[in-house]
């Protein structure tokens, strides 16, 4: 019998020779004889023959071999299909005051392409209440800002603690408050408030960002509800701290949900012409690097995952080696499959995972199995590598969930059916936001590409650039700039071997961005896993130098004096910005001095300036030196324009 011909590389010997000959005029224009009697052509044919043999050998590598090679590189298996997640909001039908929605409730949407039902399952118990969030107020000092309409409009963002138009930015202070007004009392009820924030960061997909970061919140918020009468709502004694609260937003630094229980009787009071039952959020410790901007706040909302209801199937074991089970439905969601033999789980003990990648390390008594999640096939051992399930009738029970894939990434307002008939008579359901996170199963080519990309990703900090790369490519840290200074000790003047100091500048709208202690600790904990064993780390803030410019300029004709002064100030503020300043516009370089000549040039480039008469930096006509760990920021600019 003739062996089947392998599907070789599409380049044959003749094609390899032809391609090499076509390259001769490019690399060796003096070589003009391309006939087969030429010795050079003979060498080309020789190398083409060797290349063809090598291609043939390479194409003999099977998919199983590729998987083994990937495992050696740290990629243990192909990524399984991932299920989409979505927040769903329930609402009560008429004459219903409350209704409990249990975890595992099935809801569905119509696929916009296939037209078939796409099932979702709620993750947590939810008590749907008839109260409505009708008013949202921000209080800055004695001023109120009504955000109620902004919260109802899609993609209209508002600052949680107000916006200062004079400063052009929002700087929350201790005592700033965010009020939530409800039409009915929440006493004795569990309220989930779901916050969708404006988040510019796009999280990376490398291993460093898949790990859970221990990020501390730089701000502390306190939550209270009103328990007083119909007057004197400003008296703090009429507000009671919420007894039990679970905050998944990290004090409104990320989107998430806050669960709170109201125990005492709520009072109703008129605040800013709105007579409501109030909950308020109060800034107890200021320190936001990025002030929270809110897109939407919802109640009666819970998370759901795109998967089927639990499926249970029974099979009869043959007692033969490599016994195979084919499930009726696929793909199977990862970590949802359970195998039982005679109602006992098929595993050695509670600490042993029965699902393995292969049977190479399995012993004869190991209760292991292999699962192909894409096809829904379960394979047991052969008695040498992995135990064989004993023969029996209907003695194997398999339970699992199906789902996953990009089909679960449905559009907003498409989940509209509750599959429980009795529950559907009391509540409606909707998804205000699109489902995200659904992903199809990874194929071998994608895993190979992931391995190549992974090899080029920095996970260990050896050089100074490694530290900066790791920090800047871990967006959850919210760091705008980082600078590594080797052998610099913050408390010593001389260089110290084995010391690495890293200066951190946070993402911030402020003129002088300063990292909070919590951010410095978070960066340190993250780099502690990446550093070399003998390296001692110091994470420090930058040392800022205030640059105040006093200048006199001559105006061009037909220009207004105030306009020119404003133009000069704008150019100076732009140039002396620690995040976007400098010659290249990507932030003032660490440790770079401020030169009078450059300030002359910046002022002269402002629109309407004819020439510069004089410039002083911090009241002196000298350059200003900046320490190696220092930056500059724009101070008080005194600009005088003369005709």
Would you summarize the structure shown here?
By secondary structure, the chain is of the alpha+beta class.
Features:
6-stranded antiparallel sheet; 7-stranded antiparallel sheet; 643 residues; alpha+beta; Jelly Rolls; 6 domains
Description of the molecule:
- Strands 6, 7, 9, 11, 12, 15 and 16 form a seven-stranded antiparallel β-sheet that branches. A six-stranded antiparallel β-sheet has the order 26-3-4-18-1-27.
- It is flat.
- The chain has 643 residues and is α+β, with helices and mostly antiparallel strands.
- Helix 1 packs across helix 3, helix 4 packs parallel to helix 8 (444-455) and helix 11 crosses helix 12 (596-604).
- It is built from twelve helices and 35 strands.
- The protein has six domains: 13-60; 82-129 and 301-307 and 403-441; 132-298, Jelly Rolls (Sandwich), CATH 2.60.120; 311-402, no CATH class; 464-541, 2-Layer Sandwich (GMP Synthetase, Chain A, domain 3), CATH 3.30.300; 544-642, no CATH class.
- Strand 13 and strand 14 form a beta hairpin.
- The N and C termini lie far apart (101 Å).
């Amino acid at each position: 019998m003739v062996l089947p011909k392998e599907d070789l590389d599409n380049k044959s010997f003749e094609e390899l020779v032809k391609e090499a000959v076509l390259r001769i005029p490019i690399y060796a224009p003096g070589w003009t004889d391309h006939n087969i009697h030429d010795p050079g052509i003979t060498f080309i044919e020789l190398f083409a023959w060797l290349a063809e043999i090598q291609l043939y050998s390479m194409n003999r590598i099977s998919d199983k071999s590729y998987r083994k090679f990937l495992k050696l590189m740290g990629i243990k298996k192909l990524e399984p299909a991932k299920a989409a997640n979505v927040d769903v909001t329930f609402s009560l039908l008429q004459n219903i005051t409350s209704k409990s929605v249990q975890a595992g409730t099935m809801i569905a949407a119509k696929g916009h392409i296939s037209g078939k039902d796409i099932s979702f399952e709620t993750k947590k118990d939810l008590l749907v209440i008839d109260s409505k969030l009708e008013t949202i107020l921000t209080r800055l000092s004695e001023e109120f800002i009504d955000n109620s309409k902004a919260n109802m409009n899609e993609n209209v963002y508002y600052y949680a603690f107000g916006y200062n138009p004079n400063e052009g930015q929002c700087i929350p202070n201790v005592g700033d408050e965010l009020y939530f007004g409800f039409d009915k009392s929440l006493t004795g009820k569990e309220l989930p408030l779901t916050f969708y924030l404006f988040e510019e960061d796009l999280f990376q997909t490398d291993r460093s960002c898949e790990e859970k970061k221990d990020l501390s919140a730089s701000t502390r918020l306190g939550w209270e509800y009103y328990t007083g009468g119909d007057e004197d709502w400003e008296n703090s004694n009429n507000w009671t701290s919420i007894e039990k609260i679970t905050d998944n937003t990290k004090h409104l630094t990320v989107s998430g949900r806050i669960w709170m229980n109201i125990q005492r009787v709520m009072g109703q009071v008129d605040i800013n012409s709105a007579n409501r039952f109030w909950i308020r959020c109060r800034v107890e410790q200021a320190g936001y690097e990025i002030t929270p901007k809110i897109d939407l706040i919802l109640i009666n909302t819970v998370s759901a995952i795109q998967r089927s209801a639990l499926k249970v199937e029974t099979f009869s074991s043959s007692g033969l080696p490599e016994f195979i089970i084919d499930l009726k439905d696929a793909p199977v969601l990862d970590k949802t499959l359970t195998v039982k033999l005679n109602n006992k789980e098929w595993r050695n003990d509670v600490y042993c995972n029965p699902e393995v990648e292969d049977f190479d390390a399995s012993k004869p008594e190991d209760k292991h199995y292999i699962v192909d999640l894409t096809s829904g096939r379960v394979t047991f051992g052969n008695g040498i590598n992995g135990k064989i399930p004993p023969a029996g009738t209907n003695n194997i029970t398999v339970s699992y969930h199906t789902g996953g894939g990009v089909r679960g990434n449905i559009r907003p307002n498409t989940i509209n059916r509750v599959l429980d008939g009795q529950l559907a008579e009391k509540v409606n359901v909707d998804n205000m936001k699109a489902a995200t996170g659904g992903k199809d199963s990874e194929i071998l080519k994608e895993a190979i590409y992931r391995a190549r990309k992974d090899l080029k990703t920095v996970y260990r900090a050896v050089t100074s650039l490694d530290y900066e790369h790791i920090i800047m490519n871990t967006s959850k840290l919210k760091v705008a700039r980082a600078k590594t200074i080797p052998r610099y000790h913050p408390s010593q003047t001389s260089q110290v071997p084995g010391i690495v100091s890293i200066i951190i500048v946070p993402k911030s709208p402020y003129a002088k961005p300063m990292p909070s202690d919590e951010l410095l600790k978070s960066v340190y904990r993250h780099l502690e896993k990446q550093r070399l064993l003998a390296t001692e780390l110091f994470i420090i803030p930058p040392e800022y130098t205030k640059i105040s410019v006093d200048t006199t300029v001559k105006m061009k004709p037909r220009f207004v004096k105030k306009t020119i002064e404003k133009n000069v100030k704008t150019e100076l503020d732009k140039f002396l910005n620690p995040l976007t300043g400098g010659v290249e516009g990507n932030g003032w370089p660490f440790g770079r001095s401020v030169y009078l000549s450059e300030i002359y040039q910046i002022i002269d480039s402002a629109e309407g300036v004819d020439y510069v008469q004089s410039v002083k930096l911090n009241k002196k006509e000298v350059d200003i030196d900046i320490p190696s760990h220092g930056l500059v920021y724009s101070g008080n600019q005194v600009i005088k324009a003369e005709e």
